[in-house]
Specification:
Elements lengths: L3 E5 L3 E8 L13 E7 L1 H11 L3 E9 L2 H13 L2 E7 L4 E9 L5 E8 L6 H6 L1 H5 L3 E4 L5 H14 L2 E4 L9 H4 L4 E2 L3 H8 L6 H13 L4 E5 L5 E4 L4 E4 L13 H14 L4 H15 L12 H10 L1
Parallel strand pairs: 1-4, 1-8, 2-6, 4-5, 8-9, 9-10, 10-11
Antiparallel strand pairs: 2-3, 6-7, 11-12, 12-13
Length: about 300
Amino acid sequence: MTARVVVLGIFVADTTYRAERMPRLGETILGNSFVLGPGGKGSNQAVAAARAGGDVRMLTKLGQDDFAEMALGVWTGAGVTPVISQSAETYTGAAFIYVEESSGNNAIIVAPGAAATISAGDVDGWGNEIAQASVLLTQLEQPRDAAYRALELAREAGAVTILNPAPAASLPDDMLALCDYLTPNESEAEGLTGIAVHSVEDARRAAEALLEKGVGRVVVTLGENGVLLHGRDRSLHIPAITAGPVVETTGAGDAFNGGFAAALASGAGAVEAARFGVATAGVSVTRPGAARSMPDRAEIEALLAAR
């Protein structure tokens, strides 16, 4: 059996609007298209990890509504096992996503709904699942205390811990010290360190500052420039792997994190896992959407073999 990836995070229904530009306040413009689909960083990463070959458990909270049914259907289709609680007193999360037609770049507003109530106590209730994890992956869309507790339990159980610090937030050093891997993008790395990241060298300086705060290794995702894997033993820039024209960058970071976690769980070393994550993201950006853009393991391996 493939070693287990446990993901703590949120599901939201993505409402994606493509347009030439973002409207100004008070302005209405015509969009070019609309798509309703599954999203949420935790859910996207769980789908990516499962499609990349992982045995994945998704820990979260949902409402009892149509969006919850969407979540359960998506996870079933991807092979993700849900470990969830549901409440009729609130709603399943939703997100507004604007995609710039000319570039594929995006801007996002997330309303987590039920997942905003995930507590450290909820995480304790999922302790048996976390104890069986080979890799624990979490983010910051659910409350920080819940992510902190999940990292604590995973560390106690001997699992590899990955924190994707998104959305950007300041984090205490004792939480960072629980992270075997921290996976910020450029803006998140800047938010955590105060070091503006405009180049690989900038990313290296920011990553070094994060190591000084106690992080085990840092993987700074650099969009079209790939990733920087930085640790105490080595620092390596891994370029992006192109699978075709970019259609949409929504979910690319989630694709990387899910692929990276699945590879680590299967026994890959840090460099091999990072390359696998880069290839996962490389395929995902050639397709629209977030969860539905995640490639399967065969596609990822074929891209790596071709390069």
